[in-house]
Write a structure and sequence with these properties.
Blueprint: E1 6-11, H1 17-28, E2 31-33, H2 37-47, H3 55-59, H4 83-99, E3 104-107, H5 111-114, E4 121-127, H6 130-140, H7 146-164, E5 176-179, H8 185-203
Parallel strand pairs: 1-3, 1-4, 2-3, 4-5
Helix pairs in contact: 1-8
């Protein structure tokens, strides 16, 4: 697999997508970044020999990055936008910086939009049938119900639409969509790896 490869996982709540992203990162030896992207970015980069980057360095200059990847929050009136909007912008800048290094798995946080123009980045949507999600709601989410998961999913859809102007989960954003009701999480990760390796061999 090429050194500049990035993988983006967007998942339906309760589908096991988080676990798939972890399995991928472990199998490939990639860094994995989730909602704590800014803090994790600083920690991971500081651990790498030759990477002298802290949080301030990571985030201070964003004007050299493609503005169309920052969603509805470009440079205009940046200092006047609300705190949570600034936080989104900082996360977007961090993801773009990290994606330039390669060998990363990004989970959620509008990464399919933010990283859409980064070369050699592959996008996958993980979803599952309601019965599978209902079982996981009880077993993995503190005895929550399927309705609880659907409510969280709606919040994610609104978050995504607000910041990107796009529809969350739109198939056109992804190389592949995988139903984890029909395949184990381990096999789902293997399927993603096989897809990327096949694609890169075809391009070579």
């Amino acid at each position: 697999m090429k050194d500049n490869t990035n993988i983006v996982i967007i998942r339906q709540y309760g589908s096991g997508g988080r676990e798939v992203s972890s399995i991928l990162a472990k199998k490939l030896g990639f860094h994995r970044y989730d909602r704590t992207i800014v803090q994790m970015a600083a920690e991971k980069l500081s651990q790498q020999e030759g990477y002298d980057i802290d949080v301030d360095e990571l985030l201070k200059d964003s004007y050299d990055l493609p503005q169309n990847q920052l969603g509805n929050l470009g440079d205009f009136a940046f200092e006047r936008i609300p705190y949570f909007n600034k936080m989104y912008r900082q996360q977007a800048v961090a993801m773009l910086k990290l994606a330039q290094k390669g060998k990363a798995v990004f989970l959620g946080r509008c990464a399919d939009f933010i990283l859409k123009d980064i070369p050699n980045t592959f996008f996958f949507f993980i979803y599952a049938d309601d019965e599978f999600r209902a079982t996981r709601a009880k077993d993995h989410y503190g005895s929550h119900s399927l309705a609880d998961l659907d409510k969280e999913a709606k919040n994610r859809e609104k978050y995504y639409a607000y910041y990107t102007g796009e529809k969350w989960g739109d198939p056109k954003h992804f190389h592949m969509m995988i139903n984890t009701s029909q395949i184990s999480l381990e096999k789902a990760a293997d399927l993603i790896i096989d897809y990327i390796e096949t694609h890169q061999k075809t391009e070579a």
